[in-house]
Amino acid sequence: MPRPRAFDERQALERAREQFWATGYAGTRMDDIARATGLGKGSLYGAFGDKGRLFHRVFDDWCTAVVEVAEGRLTGGPDAEALARLSGYLHLMAANTASDTERRGCLLAKGTAELAQHDPTVAGRSAETMTALLTLLRMEISAAQRHGDIDSTADPERLAALLLTVVRGIEAVGKAGLAPETLRNIADTALAVLPRPKGRNASPPDADRPARTNVGPSRPHDPPGSA
Amino acid sequence: MPRPRAFDERQALERAREQFWATGYAGTRMDDIARATGLGKGSLYGAFGDKGRLFHRVFDDWCTAVVEVAEGRLTGGPDAEALARLSGYLHLMAANTASDTERRGCLLAKGTAELAQHDPTVAGRSAETMTALLTLLRMEISAAQRHGDIDSTADPERLAALLLTVVRGIEAVGKAGLAPETLRNIADTALAVLPRPKGRNASPPDADRPARTNVGPSRPHDPPGSA
DNA sequence: TACGTTATGGACGATCCATTCCACAATCGA
DNA sequence: TCGATTGTGGAATGGATCGTCCATAACGTA
């Protein structure tokens, strides 16, 4: 009956995300988004509501993607490779931050920093995302403990929180200007200091212990990876 | 000869900082600052230039304070207490983030996230600050290594980068909504996993090893601590 | 083919905001 | 005391921005 949409909603959301990612919430004008998506104001407002709702949708999608990337890297594998999966994930995050030459940072961090204080929706979604990542990390740590790669007496919850903090911290110090090589070293060091099972000695942090599943930086424009 | 200023510049900058801290750069109107400082527009612009210059000044002061807090906590003490100083610093940072009930976050992180990409001054200053913190941490780690509290074969540069990442990461995950208790645990865990000298076994992360110089949260409105 | 319905996109209105301007006040030296 | 100089604060300005509105276009159905 009605006239169908002439644009691809998915693609429009991607363009909008690019824009919000590049210039933040307050720094993005609806005209920018109209130009970026090629849509007129009428279509924009008709399809997505106002600026706030559009951002919420973009932010929500981003958070989902962040967790999906972690799930793809971390879940579903033998315990014997759990430590390698953790290593791969940390290095992926470091590589993504390092490859962000435009220093856009991560929309999750950016949006949270800008809006969490005054926007309950953003605050809630970012908290949810952190909790989800925490759970994924904890499960992998437990798996590595079962296989004897991590000290089984350590609290997996605490180690997970530490690794999450390192991941988010890499994002922060990367945006603050630390060198790409430093970011990679941080991921290495974080993995190296994880407590080993009793009986073996803890190796110094510059030992390249874990099987480094050499992870190249994902495409620069692939947002979820840069979480 | 001329008429002297009727306001205290230092105090005006503090009020301006409160405002930028609370609502970010783009989210702060010059009217807000005028109201917060009690100054008229004429005085404001006459004394500090435009909004950008005012923010740069506030941001610069904040960065200086952040480094000063770290210096106060970390430098100048016997090697025997270096690890305790590191512990105190990490716990101070965690406590400050935890006590930020308004979730304002840290102006350094907020300003960097919002502006570093497009403002070279902010980008440069935040990079400088990170480097300065890195140096302070590295020196303390070296001191702890000399005293035998940290494995002397570990690379102090890498451990320093890891600790800096943890500090900044605590800020990030705290703003993202993780519980205050979790933040404290992260600081504990980060200290617990630091490599011990060979001969002793690494203790599991839930061991409360380092002398926890019980640091209460600083006053909520004391900005530098929350770095 | 004609009509009802929704999409489209650019013009428009109202608001907001950074900055300037100006009339006046206060100080100090002469 | 007087004047030159700077501080003060609020009104005015110019530009930008969000969201709405509307005339028109495109589709499916009868």
From TrEMBL, chains A, B:
From the UniProt entry, list the residue stretches annotated as the region Disordered.
Answer: 194-227
Residue limits of the HTH tetR-type domain?
6-66
Instruction: Name the SUPFAM superfamilies for this protein.
Output: Homeodomain-like, Tetracyclin repressor-like, C-terminal domain
Per the record, the coiled-coil ranges are none
Regions recorded as binding DNA: 29-48
A GO term, aspect molecular function: DNA binding
Assigned keywords, A-Z: DNA-binding, Transcription, Transcription regulation
The record's PROSITE patterns line, in alphabetical order, gives: HTH_TETR_2
What Pfam families does this protein map onto? TetR_C_13, TetR_N
Q: Does the keyword Ligase apply?
A: no
Q: Which InterPro entries match?
A: Homeodomain-like_sf, HTH_TetR, Tet_transcr_reg_TetR-rel_C_sf, TetR_C
Q: What is this protein identified as?
A: DNA-binding transcriptional regulator, AcrR family
Lineage here is:
Bacteria, Bacillati, Actinomycetota, Actinomycetes, Kitasatosporales
